[in-house]
Design goal:
Number of domains: 2
Number of strands: 12
Strand content: 15-25%
Radius of gyration: 22 Å
Shape: elongated
CATH class of the largest domain: Alpha Beta
CATH architecture of the largest domain: Roll
Number of helices: 10
Length: about 325
């Protein structure tokens, strides 16, 4: 019987703190500089066996710039401005109906924008219908442009869209990791990619003064900042695994305050796992700084898994 209870001590939700006997993910050096249309990286770190690894690769500078803009520009205030502008466009040609926009608290219907229409009673129902349709469509357009989705009254990262968007961008890193993986089997390749992202310094990405963004760093931004949170790291690893293990599927597993990645490599005794549509995904704790091997999770993560308090999002790219 599969068991989820082979654990690495720590806490789910944020970074995994070190405990006696647990190794620390360690980045030895980080270099990056622009060379025209490309940005060159060289990163050294210690893997799960405490072996020094050294990888060099280039990323398209235009992709880095686009990802940085996406990372910096997303905000609820900007979304509210966009929704208001779209509503005014809808009402621009109306001669008998007056639109009044009202700013409200965020809700599952308005996302901070309410309205009322004034005019002949026989025209109000159709005007209201048009404006509600405009609001709904504009909400989804805005969040989709920033690789997010709307779940009820919550805006979440669209992990599938983010992985699809950046698989090609991250291909040079994936190929560089594949080159140093040598003859390692699939599990060994997953472990190499996992140790790479665990060694990237952990950051919740909520400090706009320091990192300039908002809660999720697309993979090129993660590399440029050389820091990221659990789901930013997990998406980056999902992109890399498309080249390292091309015949395997990955999935995000989200739980209160935390996210892990899963990959459908064969299960081994002691592996933590999640299941979706009959497929078992072996757990990968990407957050760091604990150097958690493939299939090992923090105790609080395991509690969420055992209690079925998680959602699984297959990343079929």
């Amino acid at each position: 019987m599969l068991s989820r209870r082979n654990l690495l001590l720590g806490t789910a939700g944020l970074a995994l703190p070190l405990v006696p006997g647990a190794a620390e993910a360690r980045q030895l050096s980080y270099e990056h500089h622009r060379e025209g249309a490309l940005t060159r990286y060289r990163i050294r770190w210690l893997d799960h066996m405490r072996h020094e690894r050294d990888v060099s690769f280039t990323i398209d500078s235009a992709e880095i710039d686009q990802a940085r803009k996406l990372f910096h520009d997303f905000s609820l205030a900007a979304m509210r401005d966009f929704l208001e502008a779209e509503m005014r466009k809808t009402a621009a040609g109306w001669t008998q109906i007056k639109l009044e926009i009202q700013r409200q608290a965020m809700s599952d219907e308005s996302f901070g924008v309410g309205f009322r229409v004034i005019g002949p009673p026989q025209l109000l129902a159709d005007a209201t219908r048009q404006l509600k349709q405009t609001l709904e469509q504009a909400q989804h357009r805005y969040v989709a442009a920033y690789l997010r989705r709307i779940d009820g009254n919550t805006i979440s990262v669209d992990y599938l869209a983010a992985t699809r968007r950046y698989v090609r961008t991250m291909w040079p890193l994936a190929q560089a990791l594949a080159n140093i993986a040598g003859g390692a089997d699939e599990r060994g390749r997953v472990a190499l990619g996992l140790s790479f992202v665990q060694a990237i310094p952990y950051d919740q990405l909520t400090d706009r003064v320091r990192v300039g963004g908002y809660d999720f760093a697309p993979p090129p931004t993660l590399l440029e900042l050389n820091r990221g949170d659990c789901d930013s790291k997990a998406v980056a690893l999902a992109c890399v695994l498309r080249a390292l293990t091309p015949n395997r599927l990955a999935a995000m597993a989200t739980m209160p305050g935390h996210a892990i990645l899963g990959v459908d490599v064969p299960w081994q005794e002691g592996d933590a796992w999640v299941r979706r549509d009959g497929r078992v995904f072996i757990a990968l704790e990407t957050a760091g700084p604990a150097l958690a091997p493939v299939g090992r999770v923090a105790p609080a993560t395991a509690q969420f898994l055992d209690a079925q308090r998680f959602s699984v999002w297959p990343l079929r790219t």
